[in-house]
Amino acid sequence: MKGRFIALMTDIPLEATNAMPCVNCGASSTMRAHLLPKAICQEVMVDKKIATGVTENDKKFFPSQSGTFDTDILCIKCDGTLGMVEGEAIETFREIRKKATAYADGALVDVERSAETMLRFCASILYKYSITKKEYGRISLGRYQEPMRRAAFGESDVPDFLNAALLRLRLNRTDESVFAYRAPKADREQGTGANMYRIFAGGVLLFVRVDQRAVGDSALKKLWLYGREKAVFSPFDARKFEEFKIPQRQIHEDEGLAKFLPD
Ligand SMILES: [Zn+2]
């Protein structure tokens, strides 16, 4: 029996048991698709900090160890396609957290990572949130939904209505940790009123602009990724942002969440 073993290999994870058709390709069964990548949610847990999701009403942060997933939207193949871009984005977030430690707040920092990949990551997350259930924080992309889907799956160039700015939120200069994550939350660009979403993932706040109008003269102007080759970001003090303030307040007000937290 030397050197003999049996490898059990299968293309079908145990999770792939749902009989709903894939929203993207129509395949006959769907799997457990994470709306935000599981790795992003787990990074928060590693540091034993606050793990939070937020629903569409912006009031309710809730703790979750594996993040929110929807079993009724995507098949294995389509989830895997999005997972490739998401994996690259996760690596980029790690690099941003590390590199930020060498820079002061507000500095414009570039990373040797693709700007296009980060925009496709945004498309992936927004598309999934546009097809999920209301209780998971569904957003409405309207006429942008189909081009967003194509961008997410790499079926088109990144559309010119899609833009993103990356802000590394940290507690101090040497901080490389992640204190929370947040599902897409609708917002507006200062000045133009253009449609935006805030997504907090991997310790990086993404302002994702979904609007045909030209970008305004806002504080985010120097950070927009569309048209760039490499990604750029700026570090900022997390305490100035609602992504830190809301869960902090929640800890004090919500006994259930306080109990959940390790210390
Ligand atoms: Zn599919």
What does the model show?
This protein has one domain (33-260). It has 263 residues and is α+β, with helices and mostly antiparallel strands. Helix 3 (115-131) crosses helix 4. It has a six-stranded mixed β-sheet, with helices on one face. A two-stranded antiparallel sheet has the order 1-4. It is built from six helices and ten strands; from the N terminus they run βαβββαβααβββββαα. Residues 22, 24-25, 27, 74-75, 77-78 line the site of zinc ion.
Strands, helices and their partners?
Layout: E1 33-34, H1 38-46, E2 53-54, E3 61-62, E4 69-70, H2 76-100, E5 109-114, H3 115-131, H4 145-152, E6 162-170, E7 182-188, E8 195-201, E9 204-210, E10 230-237, H5 242-253, H6 255-260
Parallel strand pairs: 6-10
Antiparallel strand pairs: 1-4, 2-3, 5-10, 6-9, 7-8, 8-9
Helix pairs in contact: 2-3, 3-4
The structure holds zinc ion.
Zinc ion binds at residues 22, 24-25, 27, 74-75, 77-78.
